[in-house]
Amino acid sequence: MTVAIEMGHATAGAPATLDLEELLATRLLVQGNSGSGKSHLLRRLLEQSAPWVQQTIIDPEGDFVALADRFGHLLIDAEDHTERGLQVAGERARIHRVSTVLNLEGLDAENQMRRAAAFLGGLFDVARDHWYPMLVVVDEAQLFAPAVAGEVSDEARKLSLGAMTNLMCRGRKRGLAGIIATQRLAKLAKNVAAEASNFLMGRTFLDIDMARAADLLGMERRQAEAFRDLERGQFMALGPALSRRPLGLRIGPTETTPRNATPRLMPLPEATPDARAIILAAPPPENNRPQRRSPPDLLGQLMAAKTAALEIRPEAVEQPLSAEELAERRERVDRILRAVMAEPDSGFRAIGVLYQEFVVRCRIEGLGSDVPDLGDFRRMLTRARAGLGSDMAEDDAWQDVSVRASLLPEDMQGVFMMIARAAKEGWPCPGDAAIARAYGSHSLRRARRLLTYIEEQGLIVCQLDGAGRRIVTLVELAWATAPGDPNAEELPAEQGCSSSPP
């Protein structure tokens, strides 16, 4: 059965239609700058196809919640559900063929990615008997399939990117037709964008985006300037479900409207005589503000109870720690840090996650209020990545190294100190894999770029011997590493501590 969805009118005035059955097999990519009409286009497509096919919308800004009242979509507020609950909800929505809107408004970027990944996973993993046709619309897809790492944790990014890749690369056989909209193709992961066969390209201004849009539509580069002239709601279309040749079209009206309407100019109110008194009045007392309850910190409560019990004892007077006690405490902290670093893949986890685990372990060990703060933890982690213990890091010989390391960004200082230690001890130069791991990356190319950057700062000199082994010399200190294979997988045994996961 062929169902033609009327999207609007072509430039010549004829109706512009979309073959819904073909769309289910070939997927759709929409690009346009903010304000170009992407959300309006998606709304038109959803409204016109609602009677014919099951739908789900991944909605990061709450723009599509009105579909629930007009077309009967089930509105799911992700903030009210756990990741496991959303995964099960996705499975049940697929089984019972219920159209849904997953509203992610109010969540931060990381939780949006985690919950969207869970819901998409439920849609994807349902049993074969329930592989019914379904449109899966993802607005602002660059948030869920970013081309580069951002501020979110690697775990959340991998979960979200994996779910989006499954949708666009493997979803067709499961009846899932991905429709993704993005502000910029450059921000969207290439393996996700490459699977779409239909394109609707709206207004854009950057040369790189115009060039990529022209390439996707099979237009000549000199025609790319046309994307700057498109008005709001105008798009260039191409694809088996739309047109075999690039076609200009204007999207038609919609029955529902977004909650976040486009701002419009309106007259200012008449001047208020007591504006100063109103605006600059004293703020209300802090205790009048409603406070959101946070989850109870059980470990914190236990430590507080222990501290209070000690305070009520007359003999419990805080005494300064002796040198032996300070040394013992430092050894305990180092031991805890080594345990955190020994966790699998700890070298590639966010520093905030590592610090949380470090704090919990310190509390379990009974360190109480003596837990190092985040700044101290960062410095300890930098030394640990270089294979330096607390005693070695305090040696006078390392003061010059620390001063030079401070010239680099914080995440590079551990790598520099690791190389400095190898040079001081006369060990072979660490390979690309060891440098990448100390930096918290899997990329060997990034490790080589990192060495180049440090050399450009005038801190080291890199050279190769006749056998292709790398030698690194520290400028001014006259320390040089022994020749080392850049392709070595592991550090030598005597340097093993410096390759421990951070």
TrEMBL record:
Region (Disordered): 246-267
InterPro entries according to UniProt: AAA+_ATPase (IPR003593), ATPase_Atu1862_pred (IPR014588), HerA-like (IPR008571), HerA_central (IPR002789), P-loop_NTPase (IPR027417)
Domain AAA+ ATPase: 24-337
Ranges annotated as spanning the membrane: none
Record's signal peptide: none
Name the UniProt record assigns to this protein: AAA+ ATPase domain-containing protein
Family annotation (Pfam families): DUF87 (PF01935)
Superkingdom of the organism of origin: Bacteria
